[in-house]
Amino acid sequence: MVAFWQQRGRRQENGGLGSVIDGLGSVFDVLLANARLVLGVSGAAVLAIATLAVKRLIDRATSPRDEGDPKAEQKSLEESWQDLALIKTTPKPPKTQRREDLSEPLLSPARPVVPDPRGCSAPLGASQVKSSPLRCLTLQEKLLSRSSQLAVPEIQASLVPQLARGICTHLQNFLRSKFPELPFGRLFLSGALLDGLEVLAADHVHLMLPLVLDAGLWSLISGEDTVVRNPQYWMIKRIDLGYFPRGCSPWDRFTVGGYLSSSVLNETLHKLLVASTNWPAIGGLLGCAIHPVVASQELKLEVKHDQVELSITLFPVVEMEEKVLLAVPPEGLVENLWLESFYRAEVSRVKELDAGDSGARQLCLRILNGACRSQPSLHKLGGSPVTHVILHLSDTASDWAEESLADRFQQVLEELVASLEKGVLLCYFNPKINLLSGLLEEEIDEMGFVLYRAISEPELLLK
């Protein structure tokens, strides 16, 4: 008896709800019949899918099922999720319709979607009435665009050399008055900014202080023949002491063990810059604030102006036997070593090659230096190492025209990765020198990882 009343109650509920469903069905039919006229083809399709899903949900909710079968209930729930997912994933119609779309024939076929051969696709739901499709930039176009973004701000490009030359003049006069017996040469500025290769910001300049040595009293000994076994370093030996005893050269006061000591010279100049030079007075004349960096091992000045901030590093330099040696000793107990610099030769060679074939080596170098400057892990790779890779490639790749910039850029990245994998990048001017010898293994691994990714995604370096 109980089962009978339960079954009768269900029939009554179904009967009452059935009339409602029939009413909704007629409404849906009317909407679908007129949807194409009101919403267009795509809008009618969206409404039809949504209507079908809702009707399925209502039919499933009113259809009798076995209450004792948990699998049937679980299946019904899963089907409901699928229907809801169908509604959510249905693409939305365009918000705006052209007047012409309302007058199109009802049975007009849908326009086929033509794929973009360059791999660019319009965003989902975008109107197809636009006449100019999106276009992907080639690597060549991205490189040229990036090069235009690397320009140094005009105020820095003009003001920084002006401030540096003013400091150079005052420091030159002070050295001559402080050490009249020492034959210092004329101070001059050096660096990428002066050679048109600076990128992004002009915030550092090198100040070169030449030492004039008597070639008859001094000679060079390669670092390869010393305990450091590094051909990039040199020692400057005092010779002919029998005929010209100690004191005959004004530079004898800076010798240690018969060699001109770069460390002793730097210590003397450091004390001069920190304690003896009246930088507030010089800064007042130039309209800036000048502060020597006390804690640094380098001879460095920090310059602050209302419009720029500048770092100036002073390098004592010796030019002998067609070599340029800087007073930059390696870390450790060896204090008589001088580092051979190839910067002047690098810049001269790159410009000479570009002038010979109207090449884009300098452009490629600026883009790569900008990438190394923007990527903290690549800082030590910028400048000289990248320049030497470009010079090596210039011996094998003849086409350096601007039209081939993308190919050469990609090739430089591949050569850099290959060099980092081996841990060896030979100096263009002296193949005995490994330009990567001063890097830690962790630094080389990190550089290699970044550049390896950049081979397949060059855009990583152009941000």
TrEMBL record:
It is found in: Mitochondrion outer membrane. It is a single-pass membrane protein. Residues 361-447 form the Mab-21-like HhH/H2TH-like domain. Its main location: mitochondrion. Residues 85-114 are annotated as: Disordered. This is Mitochondrial elongation factor 2. InterPro entries: Mab-21_HhH/H2TH-like, MAB21L/cGLR, MID49/MID51, MID51-like_C. Keywords: Membrane, Mitochondrion, Mitochondrion outer membrane, Transmembrane, Transmembrane helix. It comes from Cyanoderma ruficeps (rufous-capped babbler). Residues 158-346 form the Mitochondrial dynamics protein MID51-like C-terminal domain. One of its GO terms (biological process) is mitochondrion organization. It comes from the Eukaryota. PANTHER family: MITOCHONDRIAL DYNAMICS PROTEIN MID49 (PTHR16451:SF11), MITOCHONDRIAL DYNAMICS PROTEINS 49/51 FAMILY MEMBER (PTHR16451). GO terms for cellular component: mitochondrial outer membrane.
